[in-house]
Amino acid sequence: xxxxxxxxxxxxxxxxxxxxxxxxxxxxxxxxxxxxxxxxxxxxxxxxxxxxxxxxxxxxxxxxxxxxxxxxxxxxxxxxxxxxxxxxxxxxxxxxxxxxxxxxxxxxxxxxxxxxxxxxxxxxxxxxxxxxxxxxxxxxxxxxxxxxxxxxxxxxxxxxxxxxxxxxxxxxxxxxxxxxxxxxxxxxxxxxxxxxxxxxxxxxxxxxxxxxxxxxxxxxxxxxxxxxxxxxxxxxxxxxxxxxxxxxxxxxxxxxxxxxxxxxxxxxxxxxxxxxxxxxxxxxxxxxxxxxxxxxxxxxxxxxxxxxxxxxxxxxxxxxxxxxxxxxxxxxxxxxxxxxxxxxxxxxxxxxxxxxxxxxxxxxxxxxxxxxxxxxxxxxxxxxxxxxxxxxxxxxxxxxxxxxxxxxxxxxxxxxxxxxxxxxxxxxxxxxxxxxxxxxxxxxxxxxx
Length: 449
Prior knowledge:
This protein folds into three domains: about 5-75 and about 105-185 and about 285-360, FAD/NAD(P)-binding domain, CATH 3.50.50.60; about 185-285, no CATH class; about 370-445, no CATH class. It is about 40% helix and about 25% strand. It has helices at about 15-25, 55-65, 70, 110-120, 170-175, 250-260, 260-265, 270-275, 300-305, 315-330, 335-365, 370-385, 395-400, 405-425, 435-445, and strands spanning about 5-10, 30-35, 50-55, 75-80, 80-85, 90-95, 105, 125, 130-135, 140-145, 150-155, 160, 180-195, 210-215, 220-225, 230-235, 280-290, 290-295, 295-300. It has a seven-stranded mixed β-sheet with strand order 6-5-14-15-16-13-17. The longest helix has about 30 residues, at about 335-365.
């Protein structure tokens, strides 16, 4: 069955807007529906992080859409993690060895607006204030409600769900066929705070780094914004000690923050107001076994595989999805086959980045405090210098090598981690390790894997 040229997307966030651009550029007629008002004319809904980490996978997708240069104009490069200890001392841990190995702090709202403008420019028909209320897959008809609860029917050929972790399209699909949906709560939540610019609109901390205050079972991070401010996020157990339930009162939370992050609190003049007004957000991983329904519907991005934010890959993975779906719809005349190939190609990678995101939380909040971790990182870099084609750190594979699928990065990373652990046993310093012998062993073991 040769697929048609009219495509419907539910969700005009980052993934939906970018997908609309790609499909429109290929000549499809695209209808894009969004439950909220136009963010270019209204305030963005509260409760969502305003900062995102753009890595090479996301940049590759934006370049594919001819939008990278425009996005780079408001993105800030971060060369590494700036670790803050309890005494306020800092240590920069670079993300990569080359100057171009950086990740980019981008403003969610500004990025979304840029993608919507591009969708408009490519003739996408965007419908704001339209919440999906019903899907008739047999009759190929969707029904949307506006803010006045008025119904707006829409006939579709293929509907694509880009409407986030709480996807209305996924729920409609689940009502008629089993998708294997399960949510795994992390048990930790997050609270957003801020550090404003200084009196001269400058940065109060180094803007070329992602700042981390690792404290074992919890942490705080801060990402720079173009206006000189930082968006800070506290990640903490919900029920533990310390935990968000234990610290519900603003005074108790302030006292906790002053004990754990005194250098950050000193830079937060609006802390009391933010503690009174900002809600605690939910963290969890969403797994969906089936992303498609025949040739009629498909899910991507957070609607199919929402992950925790600790590898900064949620947006990047979703952007990879959009490029893959656009390519496969063009390659296969049989739409149902194209959607199946899309799921078969992307789901193993979605599962892999979900696992690595969970693991990176442990690294950011805990392992970066361990001297053995830093020894292994130092050896990792030496092996990368000597074996650049065979030994690439897992973090670098994820962030800087979009040609390496997430699933391959996970598998290679596990083999390399075991090797690093073995090579550093009994050593406290890189000086006592024979780098020549370590290189030979790494080459032999990785070649036989």
